[in-house]
Structures are given as C-alpha cells and as structure tokens.
Amino acid sequence: MKMRLLLAAKRYAEQIERGMSDDELSEALKKSLGIFGGSGGPGRIHVTRQGSGLKIWASHEIHNHVTAKPIFEGKATIEMARYIYNIGNPADMQLPLL
C-alpha cells in the first residue's frame, strides 16, 4: 500500500503542487486505491482498501471488511490525503493575514 501511494504521489506531483479540487482528488484516490485490495502479515498492520467509496480499513489483526467500519471513508479519506500529502484546494481562498 505504501509503495502504491508513493507512486501515486509521483504520478500526480504536478496536480499536488498546484492543488486539487475535491473532485480531482477523489478521482485520483479512486485510481490509486484500485477496485479492491489489501496487505498485511505477521508484525505488520493489516490494510484493506476500496476505491469505490474511498474506503480504507486498518488494524493490528486480520479484519473483516464487511463487518468492520473503515477508518477512513469518503470525505474523511480526501481530508486525510490532503493532510498527509499537503495537497491544497484551489477553492479554499485564504485572506491575507497582514
């Protein structure tokens, strides 16, 4: 998952630099997360991802994505991606502080 997201950050470097609207970021995340997948193993965090709905599950143990609630879903996934990768939103206009 980490490698997949790093590759996505490189693929979208220009858009990340200029900022992405929620719709643009949502589409980029859907492509990066893929249809469905995951990773995990002994001593590693188990992660499941689903592009549809921008859902991400994570736990220290094997989890059931059908019954477990995702740690990020929809708008929360977009907000966390903005925070982690420092992606601005061109629609957010900040007034000059001075």
UniProtKB/TrEMBL annotation:
Domain of life assignment: Bacteria
Protein name: Uncharacterized protein
Species of origin: Erythrobacter aureus
